[in-house]
Design a protein that fits this description.
Blueprint lengths: L1 E5 L2 E6 L1 H9 L3 E5 L3 H6 L6 E2 L17 E5 L4 H12 L6 E3 L2 H7 L4 E4 L6 E4 L2
Parallel strand pairs: 2-6, 3-4, 3-5, 5-6
Antiparallel strand pairs: 1-2, 7-8
Length: 125
């Protein structure tokens, strides 16, 4: 885990492997801040959707027992939303380093779309 210094304070930056391990242990709440269209096409299985356009730190679940980790396509939007969350007074927030692109590059599993049927399908590394 790295720390990203922002104007609002430090934000944790987790690698895909760190997120995958914590997710497997049920230690995190993973939140996708991309658009609904991006999420519907492909996303990390089990991730909640809270699009950046509607992002309100007050709407985030409690972090009692589970850390919140945000992600987007490249980590630009999730970094901005993590900083917004810090500015709203949340002292600990994390986001996925390199976003969903890095997640796929690291061969982590995700939900995709079967292009022949339009149905969701599990994609493994």
């Amino acid at each position: 885990m790295d720390i990203q210094e922002t104007a609002a304070g430090p934000v944790e930056v987790w690698t895909p492997e760190e997120v995958a391990t914590a997710k497997a242990r049920n230690e995190i709440v993973l939140i996708d801040v991309r658009t609904p269209q991006e999420y519907m096409f492909e996303h990390i299985e089990g991730a909640l959707l809270l699009p950046m356009a509607f992002f309100d730190p007050a709407a985030l679940p409690s972090q009692e027992g589970k850390r919140i980790v945000l992600y987007c396509g490249s980590s630009m939007r999730s970094g901005k939303m993590a900083e917004k969350t810090r500015a709203a007074g949340v002292d600990k927030i994390a986001h996925l380093q390199g976003g969903f692109g890095k997640w796929k590059e690291a061969k982590q599993p995700y939900m995709g779309t079967d292009m022949s049927t339009g149905a969701p399908k599990k994609v493994t590394g």
